[in-house]
């Protein structure tokens, strides 16, 4: 199953709430040191969305690579 389909299925089932924050930079292969649950997805150009907690939402908008402007932010419940 492709990662995109898996991500959509996880989002529908509410599993995103239990994923750790990727903020503030969202480097691939570099797990963030924040263990807070994901609350937001930030859209990025030619990259997967960055999933972050409320504390890292602002820094990710300013520091993460590929973030669209104006930013596309989705609340994850």
From TrEMBL:
Compositional bias per record (Basic and acidic residues), positions renumbered to this chain: 1-19
Region of interest called Disordered, as start-end residue ranges on this chain: 1-33
The protein's name: Uncharacterized protein
Organism: Streptomyces broussonetiae
